[in-house]
Design brief:
The chain is an alpha+beta fold. The protein has two domains: 33 residues, no CATH class; 108 residues, Sandwich (Immunoglobulin-like). 13% of the residues lie in helices and 30% in strands. 18% of the residues are buried. The N terminus is likely disordered.
């Protein structure tokens, strides 16, 4: 007696076998594979001497909107979010807010602006009045580095 299988199932079986063969084994020499949290530290190390800073505007400057904000970084490179390259990160602009917790992902809202594409300058619309700006560098997962890299906050006035 022969077993007649539907054509879709017959075609799907070899693909399923390839997928299963590509999965990691459920154990290692220690008995289990490390979890993703064990494979990579919670925070990406930053190299000694690296720093992030604002090139412009200058502290105390009076500007018009949109404000051209230029980010500076030394001792590291810029890479887009989602690209885990060593000694890299991307900028987050903190507007009119203190730094967020440095052991958690950087929030994404109107006061914590992400530049995950790797931008190094931006034209920022700001309402007239006083504002504070600060840069916080994040890794590919939007986590601050260890130690964290952030600029001194600056105050500007928008006319």
């Amino acid at each position: 007696m022969t077993l007649a299988l539907p054509r879709r199932l017959v075609l799907a079986l070899p693909m399923a076998a390839v997928l299963l063969a590509s999965l990691p084994l459920a154990s290692s020499a220690e008995g289990t594979l490390p979890s993703p949290a064990e494979e990579r530290p919670a925070r990406t190390p930053s190299p000694a001497g690296a720093r992030v800073y604002l090139i412009s505007p200058a502290p105390g400057e009076t500007v018009t909107s949109p404000v051209l904000v230029r980010f500076g970084l030394s001792g590291m490179g810029v890479a887009p979010a989602g690209v885990p390259l060593p000694k890299t990160g991307h900028h987050h602009l903190i507007v009119d807010s203190p730094l967020p917790p440095l052991d958690q992902p950087i929030p994404a809202d109107g006061q914590h602006v992400h530049y995950g594409a790797g931008l190094t300058e931006v034209k920022l619309e700001l309402a007239p009045g006083p504002h504070t700006l600060q840069i916080l560098l994040g890794d590919d997962r939007h986590m601050p580095h260890d130690p964290p890299l952030y600029s001194e906050p600056i105050s500007i006035t928008v006319q």
